[in-house]
C-alpha cells in the first residue's frame, strides 16, 4: 500500500490521529510502533496497571541522568512501549487540568484557538461520560469515561478525612472547579480500560486504509529537499534498515522523550549538540529536547492496623476470588485502577486555586527503583506539584537510534517545587490525623514521625520524589520569533516541510493534572490542521473566569 501519512509511534496521540485520518478523512495511513501489540489481558483489566508498571516488554524505563537536587540519584521515567502507548499502561485517571493552563498555552503560542474555551468542545466532543452530560462533559463520543465500580474503604476514608481539614467534596474535578477532594473518574467502561487503541484506532481498521506495524523502531526521518518524505526503521531484532515513504506528512507521536530524540537523529535540533555526535544539522533548532517538564510526587506512607486496601489482593485465594468475580461479573477489585481518589489544594491556603494534586493510593506504593519498600497493608498519599517550575532536557547519548537518550528532568531544580512538595507532605499528614482515616492507621513509615522540620522533609523529598509519568514540552509550540520554539501554532516543525509533532512534546507548559486527555486534544487539533477540516466553534457557554488577553502574532 502507498501512504498519505506515516505516524511514528502508536501511542495516545498516534492512535487518535491515525484512526481519525483513516477512518474519517479517507487517508491511507501507516503506523509504526516500537512496542508489541496490546493483546495482553492485563491491559484491559484496570488493576493490571500496577502489574504492567514493572514489565519491561511493555515499558521504556528511561533512567534519568544524575539529578543534582536529588543527591545524584537517577530515578527512572517509565513510559508506555506498546500499541496504545501510555493509554494502554496508564492509571486511567481522567483529568484535564485548569482552564488557566490552556489560556497560558494560547498566550505562549500566540493563538486563541489554544485557549480553554476554544478547546472545551474537543474535550466534550470525544467524551462518552457515564455520569455527566453538561457544559463540561459529553456523551456519545469514543472516549469512555466512568466512575469506578469499586472503591475500597481506605479511599473512602481518605475522601472523608480530607474534608475534615477543610477541603470541599468535589464530584467533578473537570467541571466548574478543580479544588477539593473526591473519587476520580477514569477512562474505563464496564470494568475494562478504554485505551486510544479501543477508542480511535481499532474502529478505523475496517476502513482498509490503515496499516499498523508493531515492533518497528523508527531510526530517523528521510528528508529530501527540505521535506520529510518518509522514515527509516527496523523490525523486531532485525538489523536491516527498512524505509517507508508517504505522499503527505510524517507525524511524530513517539512521546516527549523519543520524539525529540528522533528529530535530533534526523539533523533537526541544536546544531552544536548534534555536531558532538557527528550529525550534520539540517535545521538548527535549539528548542528541540529543551523545556522538559514532568510532574513529581512526594509520598507519605503509613501502615494500616488492619487488612485495609489492596495489599495481598493479587495473591493466593484473594486473587482467585477477585479474578473469578471479575470474569463472571466484571466487578470487584480488578475493576479498580488502584488510584481511586485524590485531592487538589494549595497547601498554603486551602481556599486558593490548587497547586498540589494529591493521589490516594491504598497500598504501599513506591517506584520499581526503590528496593527498601515494606510489603504490608498500607496507604500512600502522594503530593504532586501541579505546575512545576523546574525545566529539564532530552539530549542524545549517541547517534545510535537503539541507545536511550540522556533524560534530565532536573527534578526540584526550582526551590518553589521543593517548598510545595513539603507543603503537600504536611497536608497529607494532617489528613491522616482525621477520622475515619486516623482509626485505620498504625503508624507512618515514610518520612517517619521523627522527621518534622523543613530540612528533614526536604531530605525525604530528595530521597523519594518520583515521576508521575507525565513528561511533556520537549518540542514546544511557540509564537513566531520565540527562539526556543520548535513548532508553529499548527504544529508544523519549523524549517521542514511535511512534518508535524502531534504528541505530548508539543505542549508548551504542563497542565495541572494528568496529561492523557490533553494529549488527545493536541492530536485532535493536529488532525484538523492536516485535513483542513473546519474548526469547531467554542460551545456557547459562559466563560468561568475572565478571558486572558491574547496577542496574535
Ligand atoms: C505509568 C503511567 C501512568 C500514567 N497515568 C496517567 C493517568 O492516570 N491519567 C492520565 O491522564 N495520564 C496518565 N499518564 C500519562 C499519559 O498516558 C501520557 O501523557 C500519554 O500517553 C502521552 O501520549 P503520547 O502520545 O505523547 O506518548 P505515548 O502514549 O507514550 O506514545 C508514544 C509511543 O511511541 C512509541 N515509540 C517511541 N519511540 C519510538 C520509535 N523510535 N519508533 C516507533 N515507536 C516509538 C512508544 O513505544 C509509544 O507507544 C500515565 C503515563 C504512564 C507511563
UniProtKB/TrEMBL annotation:
<dbReference type="InterPro" id="IPR012132">
    <property type="entry name" value="GMC_OxRdtase"/>
</dbReference>
<dbReference type="InterPro" id="IPR007867">
    <property type="entry name" value="GMC_OxRtase_C"/>
</dbReference>
<keyword id="KW-0274">FAD</keyword>
<dbReference type="Pfam" id="PF00732">
    <property type="entry name" value="GMC_oxred_N"/>
</dbReference>
<dbReference type="InterPro" id="IPR036188">
    <property type="entry name" value="FAD/NAD-bd_sf"/>
</dbReference>
<protein>
    <submittedName>
        <fullName>GMC family oxidoreductase N-terminal domain-containing protein</fullName>
    </submittedName>
</protein>
<keyword id="KW-0285">Flavoprotein</keyword>
<comment type="similarity">
    <text>Belongs to the GMC oxidoreductase family.</text>
</comment>
<feature type="domain" description="Glucose-methanol-choline oxidoreductase N-terminal">
    <location>
        <begin position="80"/>
        <end position="103"/>
    </location>
</feature>
<dbReference type="InterPro" id="IPR000172">
    <property type="entry name" value="GMC_OxRdtase_N"/>
</dbReference>
<dbReference type="Pfam" id="PF05199">
    <property type="entry name" value="GMC_oxred_C"/>
</dbReference>
<feature type="domain" description="Glucose-methanol-choline oxidoreductase N-terminal">
    <location>
        <begin position="255"/>
        <end position="269"/>
    </location>
</feature>
